[in-house]
Amino acid sequence: LSISCDCSIDIDYSGELVHESFPIARKKYKCCECGEVIEPGQKYNRYTGKWENEFSTFNTCMGCYRIRMQYCYYGWVFGELADQIADCLSFDYRYVPDEDE
Ligand SMILES: [Zn+2]
Ligand SMILES: [Zn+2]
Can you tell me the distance from the alpha carbon of 101 to that of 96, in angstroms, rounded to the nearest whole number? Predict the structure, then answer.
């Protein structure tokens, strides 16, 4: 079974990549996509871009980074990956089961 889907969105991408790296976290960060904590010692994706005259940096956990590269490679908006996946594949990958259930 192979599932192949491109959940990229068509955006007028005006941003410009300034620097992208995969550092090891030295303090806690929050993933811009799933909202989970990136713990010290974990590798993460750090993306700095320039949108018009504004520089912005986004920190993404490796799980979300892989989902982005696999499913949304041709067009994504930072912070909206889970929505893009939900719209296309009809599930929320951030879902966490309730312990009591
Ligand atoms: Zn899709
Ligand atoms: Zn994440």
Answer: 11
